[in-house]
Amino acid sequence: MAEKSLNKPGAKKSRAFIMDLIYRMIKEKPLGTVGFVITLIFLLTAIFSKFLAPYNPNQYNSLSPLQGPSLKFWLGTDNLGRDLLSRIIYGARISVIVGLGASLLASVVEITIGVISGYVGGTFDLIVQRCVDAIMCFPTLILMMVIVSLVSPGIIQFILVLGINWGITGSRLIRSATITAKQNMYVQAAVSIGAPTPAIIFDHIIPNIMAPIIVQFTVRIPAVILTEASLSFLGLGIPAPAISWGGMLNGSARTYMLQDPWIGLWPGVALSLVVWGVSMFGDALRDLLDPRLRGGIGRYNAKVKHKPTVVAKSTDIEI
């Protein structure tokens, strides 16, 4: 049965699509390929952080505080003698959990709001979009600070707050894609034969707007990671003993940064590198999945074949 399922035309098309996507990314998007490698290393580091970290990240060592990079401590130690490399490796786990969790929740929220609002239309769409406009008027970081200060900080609270807020603001793009897909002839044919609304949405609308959904998901991950790091830096992040890159830049890092610059340099480098890598990968994926750029001059390094123009020669005929 397993061999039959692997030999189905749908499975072959999926494998061919993934291989073609990887080939096009390597050929046309070199920065996107580098971003994909950074993202993959970031995910593997977070998954296997328990095996990669050389020391316990919360283990105090009074004999080696504020040490620079050495053979024993590759990235140095903080003011309590804790290994910075181990803390950065464990901090990747928090960033992955918050980034993927909040982005996944935001995708569910934006699909629910955007698809229903765009498909139903009318007065319902008008009311929903005015509520979305009201939420989009507030600056994201200020709104996050207010909400997080009202609820106790934690990983679950962060995922819920960031996911719901980013999902509501991102529903505008899904709504536009739904309105475009609703005008296709096959959707009109399904409506004319009396197909139920849930079947139309799940069979015709959502499969045809998966490209912007995937792009939104990948582009949102670095924004969520950066927002979580910003809140942790301001003291509203995930409390100890959980380790966050933004939390590592706060507190002791600001106090001892002039004495030991490594304590603030390495968390900032890790955060910048991951945000840049995931952003480049998301931008490349957006360009490759956008049907308006597929095969056109908008693709990076795409060669356009110009047809030779034929100039008709005019002949004077005397009568």
β-strand amount: under 5%
Average the pLDDT over all residues and give the rounded result: 80
Q: What would CATH call the class? A: Mainly Alpha
Count all strands and give the number.
Answer: 0
Unreliable residue stretches: 1-6, 295-307, 309-319
Give the % helix.
Answer: 55-70%
Q: What is the alpha-carbon Rg in Å?
A: 26 Å
How many helical stretches?
A: 14
Superfamily (CATH H level) name? MetI-like
Largest sheet: none
CATH topology heading = MetI-like fold
- State the end-to-end distance: 83 Å
Shape field:
elongated
Order of helices and strands: HHHHHHHHHHHHHH
Descriptive notes:
By secondary structure, this protein is mainly α. It has a single domain (37-289), classed as MetI-like (MetI-like fold). It has helices at residues 2-6, 9-28, 30-47, 49-52, 84-120, 122-136, 140-150, 155-182, 185-192, 197-205, 210-233, 245-248, 252-256, 262-289. The protein is elongated, with a radius of gyration of 26 Å. The termini are far apart. Residues 1-6, 295-307 and 309-319 have low confidence and may be disordered.
